[in-house]
Amino acid sequence: MVQWLRSLLFFTMFCVGIFFYGVLITLVWPITPLTFRRWLAKQWAYYNLFMLKWVCGLKHVVSGQENLPPAPFVILSKHQSEWETVTFHTLFPFFAFALKRSLKWIPIFGWALAATQQIFINRSHGTEALRLLATEGKAAMAQGDCILIFPEGTRMPAGQVGDYKPGGVMLAMAAEAPIVPVAHDAGYYWPKGQLLKKAGTVRVKIGKPIPTAGLPKNARKQLMAQVEQSIEGMIEEIRAEREAEGSITPNPPG
């Protein structure tokens, strides 16, 4: 019961944070540079981490940050929870998300996303969506931005593996930028679609960058397999670490 109350309090403060930072970013949109608006988004992410830690008892630990290459690069991350979408700004240089287009129309939140120049795609349009991602993503990376993409496309419950899609790999190859694979276990603590946040420590692993410069187009499938192997391999490392220390996962994979 206590954790439910803590989770409800966090949800309230989370909504307050969205409103405050969303309105602020939208108001300064016409009069400030993009870097400042993205800095505000980063402060929102720090706010979320603070509330998760002190309200819900949910902390995080990161390994592998020394693997980050100079920007720009493409971040391909496991997607289990909302946790990574509201905290990852604290872990990486300024980046743009590749997001579903419908998020753009959410009042305040969607306005802030537009103000920080996220990349919106219509996933139902298949080839057209991939073309738009490649065009806008490459243009953003030419200006020094990193791009964050969830290659499984949607949130997958902890312990499950989704179908890895080619958009992120195609963008990295087009821009000749390195791929940074990322794994975490946030889905055990903040499961998809659930209010309850469980106390504990989210583990984040950043893998070694995978180069794409000079690769031929027919190397795409091999590169996709390498990305999936890297991410899922780090997921197994996280699971092994928990077993070694004798910790009990809140939601053991089925």
TrEMBL record:
TM stretches of this protein: 7-32
Keywords, ordered alphabetically: Acyltransferase, Membrane, Transferase, Transmembrane, Transmembrane helix
InterPro entries with a match to the protein in the record: Plipid/glycerol_acylTrfase
Signal peptide (from-to): none
Protein's pathway: Lipid metabolism
Top EC class, one word: transferase
Domain (Phospholipid/glycerol acyltransferase) ranges: 73-187
Biological process terms in GO annotation: phosphatidic acid biosynthetic process
Assigned EC number: 2.3.1.51
Alphabetized GO MF terms: 1-acylglycerol-3-phosphate O-acyltransferase activity
A matching Pfam family: Acyltransferase
Protein name per the record: 1-acyl-sn-glycerol-3-phosphate acyltransferase
Annotated source species: Magnetococcus marinus (strain ATCC BAA-1437 / JCM 17883 / MC-1)
